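To: structure desk
From: M.T.
Subject: fold request, one chain
Message: Could you run this one when you get a chance? Sequence is below, nothing fancy, just the single chain.
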Amino acid sequence: QVQLVESGGGLVQPGGSLRLSCLASGNIFSINSLGWYRQAPGKQREMVAEIITGGSTEYSDSAKGRFTISRDNAKNTVYLQMNSLKPEDTAVYYCNFLIWERGGLVDYWGKGTLVTVSS
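Reply: Done. Structure tokens follow.
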């Protein structure tokens, strides 16, 4: 089992910055990928940024150039630095780990943290 707890969300003005954190605990030894997703009201959940096997990163088109995903293995924490925030970035942001367990891949999700970009 893996537990993920996000933090760092809040209200920010357009153009501002936030850093989200995701603290992981449990069986996090066989990670296939980890990342951040978001879900805006009335929309489907979408990938924002992820770190895949080997350490390479991928970003959605809307996140490229503005968001940076990183991890601190010593702290079991994944970060999402978000700069130049726009109102359309308003969403609940979820941390996701894809873990190898018993020969298969298992998705783990946190409960999410709300980011509101508004003046």
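Reply (cont.): Residues 33 and 55 are 9 Å apart (CA to CA). Let me know if you need anything else for the meeting.
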